[in-house]
Design goal:
The structure is a homodimer. Chain A has about 425 residues and is α/β, with parallel strands linked by helices. The first copy, chain A, has 3 domains: about 45 residues, no CATH class; about 120 residues, Alpha-Beta Complex (Aspartate Aminotransferase, domain 1); about 210 residues, Aspartate Aminotransferase, domain 2 (3-Layer(aba) Sandwich). Chain A contains 13 helices and 14 strands. In chain A, β11 and β12 form a beta hairpin. In chain A, α3 packs across α10. The longest helix of chain A is centred in the C-terminal third of the chain and has 28 residues. Chains A and B meet through α3, α5, α6, α9 and α10 of A and α3, α5, α6, α9 and α10 of B.
Chain lengths: ~425, ~425
């Protein structure tokens, strides 16, 4: 059974999963794998084509069970979301749409939403853009897929990602036929001098590296833009949770610094609002915009109109800015509690990786302890957190095997100290 | 300027458009074309890859201006949609979601919606399926794209479409690298004996051929399934508006007749409800389901949850069935008015193509009148309708050049007679 499973993986055939969430750990018990393997019986039907080129590996994914202490990364707290305001805006949108003649809509996204996003990112992130530069997407995942579609020549284009990366980004690139290479990252972010010269697309998370949390330093930012300019490469800047900044002054986005129209800036409302919304966007350079819009049109024509219009009103009326301010305070308190608990209980056992923003932070264990073993023990004790190895190709690499990530989007502030105390006791 | 335009077309580079709708006619005035060509200045940036393989042509698209008498095809009347019920169900959904922990959702679609769709199509179309067979998509367009993704080997797979076809279907196949061939259709639907033996995917609209409106005859249906079985090919059955049937008894869906798991059945709520919703689905055979779900996950992870849950409740509580009954009556009256007007004013000038279902019907002009010239004159007189040539590769082919389609989704019953009278006067 495991041989068949490996075969499927190596061939790039992929497994459905009923839930969604983070990536299957090597340490998942065999019983949880069972469900995935069952689906394989008819998988080799000759009528199906693989979803990637031969040899590209795409991991099957299963959702971990919810835990008592939930440190999963990339998920926001929706309990403080103003659903009453959202409902009012949705109702108003619906009343307006009800008076209009049915039609298909703009693949680039509703004008009002692009207007609102442009103002928002211009103001909060100094990303210079107008509504015309914005392409609305179904979350960051569709942005990855559409950019891969217009930038990757299957089997030829080299795409560089960080050594530790968001798996769905890499998979979108593989699915488009890219040759994906990883580039070492250190405490200044991606080591730009290690990017292969043949890379034509470079994917980075400069505000808050996923998953380590480090910010890309200003010299590295300049170097990356110089690389792109010199090599006629493009940069995909994924700013997935940079709205939440707790210390230091924000560094300029790559998009802001860019003078060569090299940068695609991706934003999402999955972290600042909620993932069920499925709305994100790309700020695209002028030369690529038409192709990007056309790729979206070919993919699914356009996004649902009601959600886009409700979000447009939500932003325009200041609710997004207000919500981010409120959540920054709430997440900030959790982050402080987490840092204090890690210092209190973990001193000498683990070291926090410096991070000033986002919904999670990471730490490395001392003394050769393997993080994935800790994660397994923690799961049995009702604590869910991912090992950094889940976000790397080589789980044994230095700085990977001993890493843990702590999301604070879901866990209550008062739970944090106890959970960390119990976790450290498991080391 | 026109040379540049042709070059872009021939290279498969594609043009953004601010609105959406039907395909640009050869007869569009140059001033309307201007906007599209302007976007081309930076199109040849070497960083962009073409969206199709070399030589594949994708038409740029522009939206016609709304007309006084609007016979556009493929658009439903939303003025009778029970938006108050929808609002109530959306509110309820939102209240429930507000109590849940944030998470990403099932790429296959919300369970409740798949349940509801399975019951609905089992009952209304005798399409035998359960919730597990359904994959929810962002409208039929995403269904086309995802099926192309899992069935087409770029540069190799031959996909057969009807001689007259829905352009977005063909484009999704081209964008996946398919070799698309057209197969003659007559008054029994696709001429199955003319399908090239090397075709591995055959796309048909058997309930209501798009755009001619004919139903595929039972012998042709049997022959097509036999072809698929014999050649290990698959059939994509697009049942875009088959819920609206006005005469005769419904023919079995290909999916219902299929005994070899050859058929993918696509349904959409863009016609029965409204296109802004962006919800459709595929009933997929078991061997392809996991790959299809994984392709959706790679494309955009999953659809927006609120709209899916609201639709699930809308169907489960019987509102969809009620709405379809109501609209069938309303569209039926318009169809009768249209048939009467065409008989009254057009006798001897044009001939209606027999059609028992859907939101539009088609007719052919007698005496060598070119339909596109008529369409241009009609537009100047405030009447919008598409020539059949807009849905064909060869606009001069017999049965194409003299064809017109009449959508009755948007036009009021009492407008129809006058509009047809004025139209015939232009012949």
């Amino acid at each position: 059974m495991l041989a068949a499973y490996d075969l499927l993986l190596s061939e790039g055939y992929l497994l459905a999963r009923p839930g969604a969430g983070t990536y299957v750990a090597d340490t998942l018990p065999a019983s949880r794998r069972g469900r995935a393997t069952k689906a394989s019986t008819a998988r080799r039907d000759p009528r199906l084509v693989p979803l990637t080129l031969p040899g590209a590996d795409l991991a099957p994914t299963l959702q971990p069970l919810p835990a008592r202490d939930d440190f999963r990364v990339g998920l926001p707290d929706v309990s403080a979301f103003p659903f009453d305001i959202w409902r009012r805006l949705s109702d108003r949108t619906l009343r307006r749409v009800a008076r209009q003649t049915a039609d298909y809509a703009d693949p680039q996204g509703q004008g009002a939403l692009r207007e609102a996003i442009a103002k928002h990112v211009s103001f909060t992130r100094a990303v210079g853009c107008t509504a015309g530069d914005i392409v609305v997407t179904a979350g960051a995942q569709q942005a990855f897929g559409l950019l891969a579609r217009i930038l990757v020549v299957p089997g030829r284009t080299v795409v560089a990602v960080e050594q530790l990366f968001y798996p769905s980004l890499r998979e979108a690139m593989l699915a488009a036929g890219a040759k994906v290479v990883t580039v070492p990252t250190d405490d200044e972010g991606m080591c730009v001098d290690r990017i292969p010269t043949e890379a034509r697309v470079v994917c980075v998370t400069p505000s808050h590296q996923f998953p380590t949390g480090v910010a890309m330093s200003p010299p590295r930012r300049a170097a990356l833009l110089a690389f792109a300019r010199a090599r006629n490469a493009v940069v995909i800047e994924d700013d997935y949770d940079g709205e939440f900044r707790f210390a230091g002054r924000p560094l300029d986005a790559l998009q802001t610094l860019d003078r060569a129209e090299s940068v695609f800036y991706i934003g999402t409302f999955s972290k600042s609002l909620f993932p069920a919304l499925r709305l994100g966007f790309v700020v695209a350079p002028p030369w690529a915009r038409a192709a990007l819009v056309r790729a979206r049109e070919l993919a699914d024509w356009h996004g649902p109109v009601l959600g886009q219009e409700a979000l447009a009103a939500f932003i325009a009326e200041g609710h997004l800015a207000r919500h981010i301010r409120k959540m920054r305070k709430l997440y900030g308190a959790r982050r402080t509690a987490l840092l204090e608990a890690l210092a209190r209980h973990g001193a000498g056992r683990l070291e926090v990786i410096r991070s000033d923003a986002g919904l999670h932070l990471s730490a490395r264990l001392h003394g050769g302890t393997r993080a994935d073993a800790v994660v397994e023990r923690a799961a049995a004790a009702g604590i869910t957190l991912p090992p950094l190895s889940r976000f790397a190709l080589d789980p044994h690499a230095p700085g990977v095997a001993n890493g843990l990530a702590f999301g604070y989007g879901l866990i209550a502030e008062q739970q944090i100290d106890g959970a960390i105390r119990r976790l450290v006791a498991l080391l």
